[in-house]
Amino acid sequence: MISNAQNENGIFSADVKLHLHIGDQRIELGQVGPGLAILRDAQAIDATEGEIETIVDEKVSRWKVRFTSPITGEAKQFTFEAV
Fold it and tell me: What's this model's pTM, rounded to 2 decimal places?
């Protein structure tokens, strides 16, 4: 999570939270980019679809995705496409 703290240049950062939802499970993400995400902690995930959630300064966005690479637990990074 990035806090709403002021840095040395006097600029404020947004409060950002990233999650992957699979069924009733919520998994923290470390990073999300176009077609690519990184789990905060490596773990194996058997699902083929889920929802990525971004919360920026309390504004929630969610979108359904299909995984295009396996999430094996050996690597935190995976690819996806919007459904």
Answer: 0.82
- Distance, in Å, from the CA atom of 60 to the CA atom of 47, rounded to the nearest integer, reads 23
C-beta of residue 5 within 8 angstroms of C-beta of residue 37: no
pLDDT digits (tens, 9 = 90+) for 25-81: 999 999 999 999 999 999 999 999 999 999 999 999 999 999 999 999 899 999 999
DSSP string, the chain: -B-S-B-TTSPBPP-EEEEEEETTEEEEEEEEETTEEEESS--EE--SEEEEEEEETTEEEEEEEEESS-EESS-SEEEEEE-
Residue type (1 letter), 46 = D
Give the position of tokens 């040395």.
8
